[in-house]
Specification:
The complex is a heterodimer. By secondary structure, chain A is α/β, with parallel strands linked by helices. Helix content of chain A is 24%, strand content 17%. Chain A starts with 15 loop residues before the first strand and ends with a helix. Chain B has one domain (25-165). Classes of the chains: A alpha/beta, B mainly alpha. The structure holds flavin-adenine dinucleotide (FAD) and iron/sulfur cluster (SF4).
């Protein structure tokens, strides 16, 4: 199935109602909601329009060549440093970029793993519950769980989510639309170990269809899930779910291979057009009544900082100085286990059971933070990646013992992932690299990041529990990946945080820029706190909510 | 080291590869390499980008990385060198001279004999001396890609790499997936 012919093409020199920058997890929802509400929408997406027919099981293309994470038209490198006193460099070996996401229609929702957790009431007011943390941006949200709940429900029902309630879940107004996915051996073992230790494993909620739903087929358990696009459209990416519905209205044009590099402000202090490079690399500009940035927590601040002007010398919408600041990536710690009987974790989706016993901050642990634990194949789900990365003790990583481990491990391995909170810190941020530019002269993304000590402590805590759980489940061997500060992120959160006070936030509770009345920002950058991992449901619930508020404002001519 | 580890750790949560950047750097050339690899996959075809001696030396190194075991073929017989030959004509063309120099270096380190005339254990001893070099890193990686990547890239002959680990290429699976599913 090739990319659909656009039903509508809007002229660039006439103002459409909305330009949305980015067609990912949030952009896809915004496009569908605003187009079905009757507005004309142009979605500018730097990636190509890949569809299910373009996805496959090629590890070299997908992982080693980073097909979806590269810019499709030209080199667009990023730099990384741990602290402001270091020179940022392009990571050696050219591995994953510091800010890792898919450049394709549907964005990172296309290749994500589908773990789809709600946040809980406490995530929105933890600062009030626990008190301040000095030297951090630890803050309450301007909205509550109760205000977001209806939109969590809409996201689950309109995108397609499989799951069942667990013992610690927040209140929900409607059950999951689909029953949980069939449990895998890794999930069963997590559950067995948890039971032994008095913990509570629950079915993992996932944005993946356990049954046919809204015209899409159920998951066929192909196993090439994390990092891959779904050939079945069973993964509830925006590509598979809401973007076709947006296009079907005839009021939404998705313009792929369109890389936005500047948002223009007129002399009334309002945005009136965005400038972009088209598929041929030629400069274009699309006029709009209002602009919505949904380019993710790394690219949205980059674009705002690049859009500096005489009216906004420090970057567009940045009078708070917080654009790009408080980057949160969630902490991740990994352990591995081997079991005597076949686990075959390379089949089906990544995760079928999770443990949320350690979700809340527990002062007894001696540090801030909470998290979740799950069992999954990690990057050992596919043959090449398994052989290249299996690190379970065979030293050297070659020879007969190594081979024995690779051969046996593929079918008998379980990985355990701990996902944690990230403390929001000003020192963790996205800025423009002062030297490095992409082939078009756009300053490169420079990520500065070092996990807070409490985040590292929480990662370690969950790793210890993970190993205990695997041992209690009967693992014959366990080992750990070192817990060290992370230097790249696929959860890109907090860099244009929402809040009521224009001096401490970038957008208001309705995602409107405090500085520019017709500029909205709604993606991972809007989050005030990081949750406990798996941020995408919250990002998409916010997008449903924002769409409603923005549509209302547009109808009243208040954009 | 810590850098490497944290990349690997995070990959776990996201899905990309640590230290494989040289492949990323060579971008779209992979597909071209695949086409020529598929054409050269026949055992008797001449080598395209390397000499027969280099192919034999690479095969010997590949068999050290992923050796024959309990009667199952090793990397050389599984076609890892066919994969490499194709790669050297495409996305690995840049490092080829370095790899060839690394092979000569192995001969140097093999005393009076050359590397190929050593027995398996003596070859292991020589390779241990160079296992931290970029040469070994690249051949190690190419070996594992050549054993386990899609057969259309020229290696993984008759899916023997996949058979060795128990992987089966299918699109559709049904539960139960493993021996423990029912214990949930
Ligand atoms: C491998 C992987 C696995 C993951 N698994 C999970 C998971 O299991 N659960 C979970 O909750 N999260 C997961 N995530 C994270 C999840 O994908 C993101 O949180 C989510 O997609 C972020 O949504 P977003 O709308 O903020 O941005 P994105 O989905 O990244 O969308 C941004 C879009 O904007 C486009 N864009 C950016 N800049 C420009 C520009 N200048 N011009 C035009 N277009 C532009 C991008 O190409 C992209 O399509 C995973 C991520 C990765 C990489
Ligand atoms: S495992 Fe299921 S959801 Fe994931 S890519 Fe395969 S078919 Fe799609």
């Amino acid at each position: 199935m090739p990319a659909p012919e656009p039903r509508v093409r809007f002229p660039t020199r006439e103002a459409v109602d909305f330009v949305i920058v980015g067609s990912g997890a949030s952009g896809g929802v915004l496009a569908r909601e605003l187009a079905t509400a009757g507005f004309d929408v142009v979605v500018l997406e730097q990636g190509p329009y890949r569809t299910a027919a373009d996805f496959g099981h090629d590890e070299l293309k997908t992982f080693l060549n980073g097909e979806m994470s590269q810019h499709p038209g030209w080199a667009d490198p990023q730099t990384f440093r741990e602290s402001a006193d270091q020179d940022a460099t392009v990571p050696g070996g050219g591995g994953p970029p510091p800010a890792m996401y898919a450049r394709t229609v549907g964005g990172a929702s296309v290749h994500f793993s589908g773990n789809y957790w709600r946040m809980r009431p406490l995530d929105f007011k933890e600062r009030s519950l626990l008190g301040p943390m000095s030297g951090t941006g630890f803050a309450d949200w301007p909205i509550s769980y109760g205000e977001l709940e209806p939109y969590y429900t809409r996201a689950e029902w309109e995108l397609g989510v499989s799951g069942a309630p667990g013992p610690f879940d927040p209140p929900r107004s409607k059950p999951y639309p689909l029953p949980p996915m069939p449990v895998k051996s890794s999930g069963a073992l997590l559950e067995r170990g948890a039971r032994e230790l008095g913990l509570h494993a629950q079915p993992a909620p996932v944005a993946i269809l356990s049954k046919p739903y809204r015209g899409r087929p159920a998951c066929v358990h192909c196993g090439f899930c994390m990092g891959f696009g779904c050939e079945m459209n069973a993964k509830s990416s925006t590509l598979a779910s809401v973007l076709p519905e947006a296009e079907a209205t005839g009021r939404c044009e998705i313009r792929p291979l369109s890389t936005v590099y500047h948002v223009d402000v007129n002399d009334k202090g309002r945005v009136d057009q965005v400038r972009y490079y088209d598929a041929e690399g030629v400069e274009q500009a699309q006029k709009a009544r209002a602009v919505i940035l949904a380019a993710n927590g790394a690219e949205t601040p980059r674009l705002l900082l690049m859009s500096a002007s005489t009216a906004f010398p420090d970057g567009l919408a940045n009078t708070s100085g917080l654009v790009g600041k408080y980057l949160m990536g969630n902490g991740h710690s990994v352990s591995h286990a081997i079991f005597p009987e076949p686990v075959n974790d390379w089949k089906s989706i990544q995760v079928t059971r999770i443990i949320h016993d350690f979700y809340e901050t527990d002062p007894q642990r001696g540090h801030y933070g909470g998290g979740g634990i799950d069992a999954r194949p990690l990057i050992n789900a596919t043959p090449v990646m398994h052989a290249l990365t299996l690190s379970g003790g065979a030293v050297p990583r070659w020879g007969r013992e190594f081979r024995r481990e690779v051969d046996f491990g593929f079918g008998h391995h379980v990985g355990v992932l701990g996902s944690t909170t990230s403390v929001p810190l000003e020192r963790n941020n996205i800025t423009l690299d002062p030297v490095l530019k992409d082939a078009k002269g756009r300053p490169a993304i420079r990520m500065t990041y070092r996990d807070h000590d409490d985040d590292l402590a929480m990662m370690k805590f969950l790793q210890d529990r993970g190993v205990e759980i695997m041992q209690a489940a009967g693992a014959t061997k366990t080992w750990r990946e070192p817990v060290v500060p992370q230097n790249f992120h696929a959860h890109l959160l907090g860099t244009c945080r929402m809040g009521d006070d224009p001096s401490t936030s970038v957008v208001d509770a309705g995602h409107r820029s405090h500085d520019v009345p017709n500029l909205f920002i709604c993606d991972g950058s809007s989050l005030v706190s990081s949750g406990r991992g798996q941020p995408t449901l919250t990002i998409q619930a916010l997008a449903f909510r924002a769409s409603e508020l923005i549509a209302e404002a547009a109808r009243k001519n208040e954009i | 080291m810590s850098k490497r580890s944290s990349r690997r750790t995070f990959l776990a949560g996201s899905g990309h590869l640590a230290g494989a950047g040289w492949l990323a750097l060579h971008g779209g050339a992979i597909m071209a390499a695949a086409r020529s690899a598929a054409a050269a996959a026949d055992l008797d075809e001449p080598w395209v980008n390397i000499s027969a001696t280099d192919a034999a030396r690479l095969g010997a190194v590949a068999d050290q990385v992923y050796p024959p075991l309990d009667g199952a073929p090793g990397a050389e017989a599984i076609g890892a060198v066919r994969f490499m030959d194709a790669a050297f004509g495409g996305f690995m063309a840049g490092p080829l001279p370095m790899v060839l120099a690394g092979l000569d270096d192995l001969d140097q380190r093999s005393g009076a004999d050359d590397f190929l005339s050593l027995g398996f254990d003596d070859r292991t001893a020589v390779l241990k001396q160079v296992e931290a070099t970029p040469f070994f890193g690249i051949v190690h990686m190419l070996t594992l890609c050549g054993v386990f990547a899609l057969p259309s890239y020229g290696g993984n002959r008759d899916q023997q790499g996949w058979k060795a680990i128990g992987f089966e290429s299918r699109h559709v699976w049904q539960p139960p997936f493993g021996a423990y599913d029912a214990s949930a």
